[in-house]
Amino acid sequence: MSDQRTGLWLIGARGSVATTAVSGLLALRAGLAPPTGCVTARPELAEVDLPSWDDIVVGGHDVVTTSLDKRAEQLAHAGVLPHHLLPSLAEGLRAADAEIRDGYHPATHRGAQATAADRLTADLVSFRERHGLARVVVVNVSSTEPPVPHVPEHDDLALLEAALADPERAVLPPSSLAAYAALRAGCPFVDFTPSAGVALPALDRLAVDLGLPYAGRDGKTGETLLRTVLAPMFTARGLRVRSWSGTNLLGGGDGATLQDAEHAASKLESKARGLAALLGEPVTAPLHIDNVPDLGEQKTAWDHVSFEGFLGARMSLQFTWTGLDSSLAAPLVLDLARLVAAAHADGQSGALGALAFFFKDPLGHDEHRFAEQTRELHAWARGLGRYGA
């Protein structure tokens, strides 16, 4: 068994981001496409010993039943995947789809959450053993959840596990139950969403106790990526930002999910925290998210920045970002799987703050400036021990 053989287990495995990531992995493995958008393929990380594309085996959980090959056809029609690649990817997509198991949904689960956690954990252990994997990295790319109210059980592992055994309570949201199950299975966890996920004190304690690394949260792919580059420009030049307004137009599954105010709240909070940290002070920053089904998989963000210069002169900057979010996110999912696998092999545990580069609301780090995040990522990656040594 190769010690680099690594599982990538996707929560939301039949969604747009997951399907694009799996399709991209298959294309890279077959030499059908270059690794455009993959940070781990950059020259700066060329000497870092990471699992190769051939070393990665895919599985996952999902509550939907549309197969990966059918979902890939839909994404090709939406312009995310190239039509000419589908015949070459079909067999690999069907093989990956065969490794997807039923996910947890609170509306359909009966009984204690501990029972659901046991089932999710068993799926991960079986996957790892069946494929002879050295490790499995679990990445959450499921739909955004509403913010969760704080309860004492989220702060204390003993209280949490007692509550999970109570059939009358649902103390964890689905993303956090997935994180709990992953950690119990001995798997590192990555949260690519703004949901609660692993970002609970009790789960941090569990990860550290078990010697497992985790990373998150809320993948940085579009508008916020631009903000983390542009906001430091204003502060470095001593220009005062008076307001930073934004409008996001979304189609596809994200648009449908985030048109609900409760679900959108997690995304809005994540974006607001990052902007305030970048500017060094609170700023008026209204942000609207609108569902426009006609856009399909496309996302458009428009920002208006009002700023003040010398002697109070008032000026503004406006920019528009239009992109296919799944195409931007998928290579980062593959990057994170490789980097977190290497961190696990290196014996690291707890929040991987050096991976703040990838996230809007990074766990374990309060640095939001993109240039600084880039330098820290490269330095951290070069310091990893030889993978599998």
Automatic annotation (TrEMBL):
GO terms for biological process: inositol biosynthetic process; phospholipid biosynthetic process. InterPro entries: Myo-inos-1-P_Synthase, Myo-inos-1-P_Synthase_GAPDH, NAD(P)-bd_dom_sf. Coiled coil: none annotated. GO terms for molecular function: inositol-3-phosphate synthase activity. Gene3D superfamilies: Dihydrodipicolinate Reductase, domain 2, NAD(P)-binding Rossmann-like Domain. Residues 222-326 form the Myo-inositol-1-phosphate synthase GAPDH-like domain. It comes from the Bacteria. Belongs to the myo-inositol 1-phosphate synthase family. This is Myo-inositol-1-phosphate synthase.
